[in-house]
Amino acid sequence: MIPEQTEVLVVGAGPVGLAVAASLAGQGRQVTVVDRQAAGANTSRAAVIHPRTLEMLERIGVSDRLASLGIQSKQFHIADGDRTLVPVRFDKLPTAYPYVLMVPQSTTEQVLLERLKELGGEVHRPYVASGLRQTADGAEVTLESGELIKAQYVVAADGMHSKIRDLAGLGFSDDGTLPLNFTLADVKVDGVLPKDEVMLYFSKAGILVAAPLPDGSIRLVAEVDEAPEHPDVAYAQRLLNARGPRSRTVRVTEVIWGSRFRIHERVADRYRAGRVLLAGDAAHTHSPAGGQGMNLGLRDAITLGEALATALTTGNETPLDNYATTNREEALRVVALAHRLTRLATVPAPFRSARNAALHLLAQVPAFRRTFAAQLAGIGHR
Q1: N or C: which end of the chain has fewer CB within 10 A?
Q2: What's the pLDDT band for 42 if we cut at 50, 70, 90?
């Protein structure tokens, strides 16, 4: 039975919504989570957790559990065929998690859901938010099924097309869609590709990301002119042949899952409207370059959960305003970084050789390699 009243209503049970709820439950606050899906994610989607995010997830007790279920990649390479352009090492960074964790989003969600249940919480499915009204001491959310939930605060963690965000009047000032098409395929292969590090190929034919996943599959991501809705084995093989390693043969044997997507670069004009706060993709969307999206959202979640707990305990809402300001500033920095990386990766064909030469030259400077690794890891702005 879904409760009629709660301290915090979280709309959306993806990684961000679950992390907000676990943070609140762990601090003894009453939280209700609703989600429109009948079940959680069963595809890998986001697959990277960075060191700073793992540091913050310690606060809800899931970092070690996640680390045990993923691939701890201590470095990655930007390469042109078999030639390394930029080696990026994470094992020298000042953190307890000197690696990038490769773990499917479905696993991350399952770990967060288990933690929420351990803390006494649950997710109510499927419930779709259809109305929002703010009151003097809270907010009321109407569900399509007819129920009305009264809450002191509402967290919009319902993704890029957030209904709660739009109902609260917290939108984006522009569309922010980039004219780029991407294809994604999780594949099984015969042949040698690194099993514990991410490869980013900057070839003349275009970019290709090859990232290992814990089940032994490889995630391929590429910018293409026209992306198929469902990439098949032959398509994935052509990408590897044209853009991947040259001195060894890698044969695609199966496509486990595939999709296509466009890039949206947007940050909400505001993160707070009275009793409604934004987190995750409801607040910001950007290029997947650098694997920053889910990480930024999870960091939103931990900060917001703690700010809400303080506001509920003390009546002081200053931490909520600080969250709305500080985390929006971080989103702007991350979106700018992802934009630069995307533009670097997708330069027009005539300039790709020059780009690769310049990157190889820059990589000879230790300070450049350290700074680049720290920015990707998220620890440059702790």
Answers
A1: N
A2: low
